[in-house]
Amino acid sequence: MHRFEWNSKMVGISLAVVGLLVGLVQGGLTRVVNPRLGNERSAYLGLTLYAAGLVLMAFASETWMMFVFLIPYCLGGIAGPSLQSIIAGLVPPNEQGELQGALTSLMSLATIIGPPLMNGLFDYFTSTRAPMYFPGIHFFLGGILMLASVLIAWRFLRKKLHVAEH
User: Dihedral sign, CA of 45, 46, 51, 53?
Assistant: First the structure.
């Protein structure tokens, strides 16, 4: 709303586009892509697409760019089922409930920490106090954190696969 002077109608349209894209990815694309690529590659690709979409949105200068950049971001949704499958495969059947509870707790923690952190960054980088005006800072930080998650997943999975081979 701030950067492109969107009104509530434009916000609603953007959210509808996100909903449509996410529905297409979750409802169809993951069923095709994930079995072909396998869980590990789907996770890496999805997390990288999330990161790319977020970084691109951070630097978007026109409204149409936001809609185009939603495509790689929403395609990143292929990561979720793959990560869930990988993680579930590392835990014995009698501990699956604990795992799901832990994952839900982590998601809750992210929804508690994320909004104040991102809103604070946005407020600062759109004020006169900031060293530069950067209304896309929250997208940029999200992209950096998503890239970090790719590296963490790669190191963890590489270690797990190496242990399983020996």
Answer: positive
